[in-house]
Design brief:
Radius of gyration: 20 Å
CATH architecture: Alpha-Beta Barrel
Largest sheet: 8 strands, parallel, barrel
Shape: globular
CATH superfamily: Glycosidases
CATH class: Alpha Beta
Strand content: 15-25%
Number of domains: 1
Strand order of the largest sheet: 1-2-5-6-7-8-9-15
Length: 346
């Protein structure tokens, strides 16, 4: 592992751009590029629908997808652009469609054609719904089919010298265990997928979510266990990016809300008597408050220090970098903060 005082230098980070806030996420990404905090940008622009067809997502802020001006602006600022593909397919439908290898090939060709037609540097596969099962035999079938699909897409893209990024859920054991009562991360074969990927992104967040009790979004020891397991279960460390959350959550009143930096600022203004604590163990910010309706709330949030602490951890493993979810969620000072930290001499 890598040591040294300069804990965040030398990393090749990436950032996702949500399609539902395109202008704000673009502005954030440009700042991150200008501060040399990221090198790759992945706009959420595509999805595989229930029929297995590659479709464009809806745009926002008057911007359509694919947005050529956004692409050109990102590239002028030095970004490698690899738009993200998600899916609405659930495990059973995924198996039904893509157990047919001709369907795998059809999708691989469609993805490659879209990449070439728009001048992208590659594509990012982020198929999360395929993990939404608690049935182990189903998860194992998904795993085999998804690995084959990624191999085909990788093969087609490599013929035209384009990149394949594969985004997966966090794993910390070899077991096909059910996580958060609803999904099995074992559908992602880290060894096989990291072999065919140009970049392998691990979403090391959502440790605590809407269907869990309050807790850190990505507790530091939990993230470390993911890094440990990933370190021993991928083909090439230099391909690995570890996901870093730029958001938080607010549990209370029978609801769980995701919160961004602006929401956090508003809450702290509304409840100034609440003591904000940076947990040395979890390396996230947390506080509690009682709403006007008398409900007790607990908030956990990833602040600037959370991000730089995780970047230092990522560098210590020799991984490629971090993957930020998501542009425009962060404290506006974050990118300058990372840039200054990265300039600290070894």
């Amino acid at each position: 592992m890598i040591n040294g005082k300069n804990k965040t230098a030398g990393l090749s980070n990436s950032i996702w751009l949500p399609n539902w806030r395109m202008q704000k996420s673009l502005d954030s990404a440009l700042k991150a590029l200008q501060q040399q905090c990221v090198k790759t940008v992945s706009p959420f622009w595509y999805e595989i629908n229930d029929a297995g067809i590659l479709m464009v997502k809806p745009g926002s802020d008057g911007m359509k997808i694919p947005d050529k001006s956004t692409l050109e602006l990102l590239k002028r600022n030095g970004a490698s652009v690899t738009p993200t593909i998600t899916t609405t397919l659930m495990p059973d439908d995924f198996i039904r469609l893509f157990s047919d290898r001709s369907e795998q090939q059809r999708l691989a060709e469609a993805v490659t054609q879209e990449v070439m037609a728009n001048g992208y540097d590659g594509i990012d596969l982020d198929l999360e719904n395929i993990a939404l099962t608690i049935d182990v035999p189903t998860a194992k079938r998904v795993r085999g089919i998804y690995t084959e699909l990624c191999q085909r897409i990788s093969s087609e893209l490599s013929l035209v010298n384009k990149l394949l990024s594969i985004t997966v859920m966090a794993r910390w054991s070899d077991d096909f265990e059910v996580w958060r009562d609803k999904l099995i991360p074992g559908v992602y074969d880290y060894k096989a997928l990291s072999k065919v990927a140009s970049v392998f992104r691990v979403m090391a967040y959502d440790q605590h979510a809407p269907n869990t009790p309050p807790g850190p979004i990505a507790g530091f020891q939990w993230v470390k266990s993911i890094c440990d397991w990933t370190y021993h279960n991928v083909c090439t460390l230099g391909k690995v990016e570890i996901g870093i959350p730029l958001y938080g959550r607010d549990w209370g009143g029978g609801k769980v809300k995701s919160i961004l930096y602006n929401n956090m600022v508003q809450l702290r203004k509304m409840y100034p008597q609440s003591e904000v604590i940076y947990s040395d163990t979890e390396k996230e910010e947390t506080f509690t408050y009682v709403s006007s309706g008398g409900d007790k709330h607990t908030v956990w949030y990833s602040n600037n220090q959370s991000v730089t602490d995780r970047l230092a951890l990522i560098r210590s493993y020799g991984f490629r970098g971090g993957a930020f979810w998501a542009a425009s969620y962060e404290n506006p000072t974050l990118w300058e903060n990372i840039h200054v930290t990265s300039l600290t001499a070894d």
